[in-house]
Design goal:
five-stranded mixed sheet; 16 strands; 29% helix; globular
Length: 417
């Protein structure tokens, strides 16, 4: 076979590839982009799926009618539609049959499960979602204390034009608020069957606030709300407004949701997993029993853990090194010597130590769930993988004993004589 023939053949193949065009293409105007998914227990079928779909700006004011077993609500830049179905893919197919566009999950930011469904176990849903070719494994998982359809319906940001961007801000806020952790679909999927510990998810819900708002106010409040005074007269009117709340963690035991950690209880989790970037906390003032000190926390170095096992009981030692900046304006008389600064550092150290010990107590004794995955610090004590599996860390964690050492360095501009 001559070289000329080979080069000619290669040239023909390249031309066929370059000029053949795409084998499949879709116009973005033909796609319905889902920004959030919700899952509840269905009334007539296994699931109630809620799709929060982005509405193009050109059709932002258009509505959509109900059809079949679905319901929909329009809010700002999204349309929320609920469908009862027997499985995830059957729900997507049913929505495709009800809309004029092809449902696309590639821009989904949040997946919301109701707490009632999560208590029954969500592994089969997580497995299906993780293996969906369109869905990104970086989208966040949230457990809602209210029905998922309500959570998505009340998600109506005032200061953001895009709901998708609002969800992104919620996820990114974990790096500076310390209110929750950035738990993704991939994290939950890989952690549910992990031998080193259990898993967790972001916690959310809704709350109602009674507000007084001027009728002539130039700032309009939008979103699902019920007004307690429908008078059209000028002046103030009372209104009940419902908003979403995101903060804390949902704790899992295996695939089942078993309980919550509050915002204060989430801080120790972030510290011991080295996920704390920065946070502002209030601690009791050691110089005044009737006041608190506001602190800015960050980690000087990664938290270290040491695990020993005696008589099958884990003994866990945690060493924490924190950098603290005072935000409160203490009286200058409070810190005038090295001893007083040491007293302040000790008070902060004791407070953080207590928070971490309370976290360990709650997760081990009440929930029996090691969501911090401390088992990875014990696996080296076992000569073989089978020995580690037979030990069953997830069942032994509840018997653990804990020792916590917190070192605090306070940065202050006060003069020390």
């Amino acid at each position: 076979m001559s070289k000329k023939f080979i080069f000619t053949l290669i040239f023909i193949i390249l031309c066929a590839i370059i000029f053949s065009g795409y084998w499949h293409e879709e116009d973005i105007d033909d796609l319905a982009y889902v920004v959030a998914l919700g899952f509840d227990i269905g009334e007539s079928k296994e699931l109630k799926m809620t799709f929060q779909i982005s509405i193009p700006s050109a059709t932002n004011s258009n509505g959509s009618g109900n059809s079949g077993s679905s319901s929909d609500k329009s809010s700002k830049d999204t349309l929320t539609k609920s469908i009862e179905c027997s499985s995830i893919y059957s729900g997507i197919n049913e929505l495709n049959s009800l809309t004029s566009k092809d449902v696309n999950l590639s821009h989904c930011k949040f997946i919301v499960f109701s707490d009632k469904l999560a208590k029954k176990g969500i592994y089969k849903y997580i497995y299906t979602l993780e293996n969906n070719a369109e869905l990104r494994s970086t989208c966040n998982i949230l457990i809602s204390t209210c029905p998922a359809t309500e959570f998505l319906s009340y998600t109506n940001p005032i200061f953001e034009n895009s709901t998708a961007k609002y969800y992104k801000i919620i996820a990114n806020s974990t790096s500076y608020s310390g209110f929750t952790s950035n738990i993704t679909l991939n994290h939950l999927y890989t952690s549910i069957s992990d031998t080193f510990g259990e898993t967790c998810a972001i916690l959310g819900g809704i709350k109602e606030d009674n507000i007084t708002e001027s009728v002539n106010s130039s700032v309009a409040t939008s979103g699902p709300s019920s007004s307690s005074n429908s008078s059209n007269n000028s002046g103030d009117q009372n209104e009940k407004k419902t908003d979403i709340v995101v903060g804390g963690l949902a704790v899992f035991k295996g695939e089942n949701y078993v309980g919550n950690l509050t915002v204060d209880e989430t801080l120790p989790y972030l510290i011991i997993t080295n996920d704390l970037k920065e946070a502002v906390v209030s601690v009791p003032n050691p110089f005044d029993d009737n006041s608190f000190i506001d602190l800015h926390l960050s980690q000087n170095m990664e938290c270290s853990h040491k695990v020993n096992i005696r008589n099958s009981v884990p003994e866990i030692t945690t060493d924490v090194d924190l950098n603290v900046t005072l935000l409160s304006n203490l009286e200058s008389s409070h810190i005038t010597s090295t001893k007083q600064l040491s007293d302040l550092e000790k008070a902060i150290s004791d407070y953080i130590s207590k928070l971490i010990l309370n976290y360990y107590e709650k997760t081990s004794k009440e929930y029996k769930s090691d969501i911090a995955k401390l088992g990875k610090y014990a696996v080296h004590l076992f000569p073989t993988t089978q020995d580690w599996i037979d030990y069953d860390w997830n069942s032994k964690y509840e018997t653990s004993t804990f020792n916590v050492n917190v070192n605090v360095i306070v940065n202050t501009s006060y003069f020390i004589s």
